[in-house]
């Protein structure tokens, strides 16, 4: 029995070493540009899986052979910065000092205002729920992605909604891909399209005499088609089927790698533009990448993340086709501080909106 116990402990230790190495690698892969090293970027997507495996193996070793449990424990400790970005814990709430002046910002990928909510309704809907949901937040400034250009009457957007929108937001600026709605005067200062779907538009906003440059980003998406999504769900539910789908998996993986490489150059360009402008900067939108990615790392440098300061848990902003990830972010720098944050909970789009209240320092 003693020999069997040692054998089991050895096997668990080997698995723990492998899981620990993968965890640490995935925790620090954000420092590698996919333009030079594309393949390792895939590790970053699996960080939560490696973390769970390492924790389970740590608990097993704690029971089987306590001294060897130090191996996964060390990996977990080394990975704390990355794990915190995935799962911050902020239990207290900051109070807002309205005497200092505040403003609110909403970032929302609206998926072309196509209502994806599956909940039943009484009768046929006569208005667009995605647009109404956005308006109900009543944010001072709204950054929308995937609008398909200027907001028009389509997908059951009614004339009354359009009239209410104009009254609520007198300043409406649009590019080919996204839209800004504002209660404050604003102008477009940067309008860049990287590809057919990836773009950055920056707006200079005058908030009661204080200028803020807000970057509305929709960076390179993976571009998965319906067959790719079916493949992903099949692999997630039945990993053993991977041996039968090698060719499909290669094509699937190439799309991920292409997106990683494209986003690397896109975020470097955005960050460079922001640095040249300086002052009060808000970097928001759908960057199509997770909190321990190279894309997020570049945009986060020298900036605060409202979710890390105020959010708790994984904060998934995209939940569709079996993928649960946080890829919509609000980062900022300058004479302001995030004091309140909310993530939406209605799936009218394939993304959830992110709302932040800022207070001037």
Order of neighbouring strands in the sheet with most strands: 3-4-2-1-14-13
Residue-averaged pLDDT: 91
- Overall body shape: globular
E-strand count: 14
Which structural category fits the helices and strands?
alpha+beta
CATH architecture level-2 label of the largest domain: 4-Layer Sandwich
Span between termini: 66 Å
DSSP summary: helix tally: 11
CATH class of the largest domain: Alpha Beta
Please give the share of residues in helix.
25-40%
Order of helices and strands: HHHHHEHEHEEEEEHHEHEHEEEEE
Largest sheet: 6 strands, mixed
Enter the CATH topology name of the largest domain.
Deoxyribonuclease I, Chain A
Number of domains: 2
**What ranges have pLDDT less than 50 throughout 5 or more consecutive residues?**
none
3D architecture notes:
This protein is of the alpha+beta class. The chain folds into 2 domains: 2-86, no CATH class; 98-227 and 229-360, Endonuclease/exonuclease/phosphatase (Deoxyribonuclease I, Chain A), CATH 3.60.10. It has helices spanning 2-28, 41-45, 47-64, 70-78, 80-86, 129-137, 159-168, 226-237, 246-277, 294-300, 306-310, and strands spanning 102-109, 141-145, 171-174, 179-182, 186-193, 199-207, 210-218, 281-286, 304-305, 318-320, 323-325, 328-333, 336-343, 354-360. The strands form 3 sheets. Strands 3-4-2-1-14-13 form a 6-stranded mixed beta sheet. Strands 5-6-7-8-12-9 form a 6-stranded mixed beta sheet.
């Amino acid at each position: 029995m003693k020999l069997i116990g040692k054998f089991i402990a050895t096997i668990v230790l080997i698995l723990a070493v492998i899981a620990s190495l993968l965890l640490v690698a995935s925790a620090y892969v954000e420092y590698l540009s996919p333009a030079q090293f594309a393949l390792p970027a895939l590790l970053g997507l699996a960080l939560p899986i490696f973390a769970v495996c390492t924790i389970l193996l740590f608990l097993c070793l704690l029971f089987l052979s306590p001294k060897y449990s130090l191996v996964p424990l060390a990996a977990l400790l080394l990975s704390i910065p990355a794990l915190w970005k995935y799962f911050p814990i902020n239990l207290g709430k900051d109070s807002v000092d309205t005497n200092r002046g505040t403003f609110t910002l909403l970032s929302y990928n609206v998926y072309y205002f196509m209502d994806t909510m599956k909940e039943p309704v009484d009768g046929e809907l006569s208005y667009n729920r995605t647009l109404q949901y956005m308006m109900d937040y009543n944010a001072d400034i709204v950054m929308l992605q995937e609008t398909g250009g200027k907001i028009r009457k389509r997908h059951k957007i009614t004339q009354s909604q359009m009239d209410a929108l104009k009254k609520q937001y007198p300043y409406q600026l649009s590019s080919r891909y996204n839209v800004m709605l504002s209660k404050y005067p604003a102008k477009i200062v940067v309008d860049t399209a990287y590809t057919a779907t990836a773009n950055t538009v920056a707006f200079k906003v005058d908030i009661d005499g204080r200028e803020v440059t807000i970057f509305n980003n929709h960076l390179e998406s993976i571009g998965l088609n319906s067959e790719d999504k079916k493949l992903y769900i099949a692999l997630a539910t039945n990993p053993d089927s991977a041996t039968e789908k090698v060719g499909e998996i290669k094509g699937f993986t190439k799309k991920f790698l292409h997106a990683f490489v494209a986003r690397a150059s896109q975020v470097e360009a955005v960050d460079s533009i922001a640095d040249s402008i300086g002052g009060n900067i808000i970097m928001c939108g759908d960057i199509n990448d997770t909190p321990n990615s190279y894309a997020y790392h570049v945009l986060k440098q020298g900036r605060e993340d409202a979710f890390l300061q105020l959010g708790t848990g994984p904060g998934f902003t995209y939940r569709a086709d079996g993928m649960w990830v946080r890829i919509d972010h609000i980062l900022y720098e300058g004479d302001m501080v995030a004091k309140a944050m909310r993530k939406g909970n209605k799936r009218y789009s394939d993304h959830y909106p992110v709302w932040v209240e800022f207070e001037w320092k």
